[in-house]
Amino acid sequence: MSEGTPNGRNHTPGSVIRRVRRQRGWSQQRLIFEMQRVAPRLGMTVPAPESLKAMLSRWENGHQVPDAYNRRLLAAGLRIPESTFDMPSD
Questions:
Q1: What is the rounded average pLDDT of the residues 5-14?
Q2: Distance (Å, rounded) from C-alpha 7 to C-alpha 36?
């Protein structure tokens, strides 16, 4: 079993992003495209692609945690419920 939750799954926001993105067969670039695509519909803005790529890498590698604004955008881009990012309680 891997580290993380009792069932062996790591449930950090970054691990969720990476797992769902890979399950879809998407590159980080594809996820960035999807986030850019859904942002206007949500009335949201996204940073330049280069900045978003750096942010996505930091999130997936666990160096930073996406804030609520970006979790909403990520959820829409990945087509998952925002609650997917909820951390399990100890």
A1: 64
A2: 34
- What DSSP designation does 43 have? T
- Tell me the percentage of the chain whose pLDDT exceeds 90: 79
Token pair in block for residue 88: 């399990």
Are the CB atoms for 85 and 71 separated by under 8 Å? Answer: yes
Residue 32: domain span: 13-80
User: Would you say the C-alpha torsion 6, 9, 10, 14 has a positive or negative sign?
Assistant: negative
Q: In this structure, what DSSP letter does residue 30 have?
A: H
Say if residue 32 is exposed, middle or buried (CB neighbours under 10 Å; 0-12, 13-18, 19+): buried
Within-domain flag for 20: yes
Structural domain contains residue 6: no
Separation in Å, CA 64 to CA 6, 51, 70: 23, 14, 12
pLDDT at 6 over 80: no
pTM: 0.83
